[in-house]
Write a structure and sequence with these properties.
Layout (H helix, E strand, L loop, with lengths): L3 E2 L17 H15 L1 H5 L8 E5 L6 H12 L3 E5 L10 H15 L3 E6 L2 H4 L12 H16 L6 E7 L18 E3 L5 H12 L10 H6 L6 H17 L7 H22 L1
Parallel strand pairs: 2-5, 2-6, 3-4, 4-5
Antiparallel strand pairs: 1-3
The chain binds adenosine-5'-triphosphate (ATP).
Protein name: ATP-dependent zinc metalloprotease FtsH
Subunit structure: Homohexamer.
Subcellular location: Cell membrane; Membrane
Length: 270
Amino acid sequence: KAQLYDKASPDAKTTFKDVAGLAGAKEELEEMVEFLRNPTKYTEIGAKIPKGALLVGPPGTGKTLLAKAVAGEADVPFFSMSGSDFVEMFVGVGASRVRDLFKQAKEKAPCIIFIDEIDAIGRARGKNPNMGSNDERENTLNQLLTEMDGFGTNSGVIVLAATNRADILDKALLRAGRFDRQIYADLPDINDRKQIFKVHLRPIKIDDSVDLEFLSRQTPGFSGADIANVCNEAALIAARNGKKVVTEGDFTSAIDRIVGGLEKKSKITT
Ligand code: ATP
């Protein structure tokens, strides 16, 4: 399924509180929230509300989470699709899915459309020697450009797209009136890792001896997704051993396990 309509129930709503660190990104996105909540403040004075922004950063740094939090904070519906869903599509299907998505979104405006992995459809056209030309991908991209141009600046639809390869995107996507703003979600530094641990330790019963500073120090290069993984893995290890609380040793084992996974992944990609 390429599109989802998941206006979260009020208690399950994602907000900026769920996103640790990323202060710069949150600050820029606060403005998007304000556009959705209070559009007339801008339009009455003659300002054009941006249609879209690109969230750029390595995998697992919280781009999807940020997009959901914008919808949650503004209390508007969140529509999402992933660029990779469109790669193996039959002729015409990708473009018509994009058309449907925008049609649904416009009916529910104000709202957020989130396009994950936009590089899968938004790679520069005609520059893909490995796969030959992929006409359907181009059709999908062209449809996306058409849709971005087709809705008015003040339609109440804001399109957020995520990528870890902004450099390979078709320049047409980055033009004024499309994804003309870039918002960075970088890997967290030690302080941000501490904040991310705090978020993901919330539901977990931990031993008093567990030291956040220690955990943050042991996890350089970890993304938010990796940290979420560490917390859950540590809880699984503790539970497996019949413990009632998670100890620092469980965290160390979980970190070792995830470092092992990360090393394997980087061997495959390099
Ligand atoms: P991808 O590029 O792989 O799609 P992404 O940048 O969209 O990744 P998310 O899907 O938002 O990353 O993150 C995955 C999970 O990792 C989140 O659901 C959350 O549990 C955790 N996470 C990532 N970043 C953060 C953060 N800054 N604060 C709290 N949790 C985070």
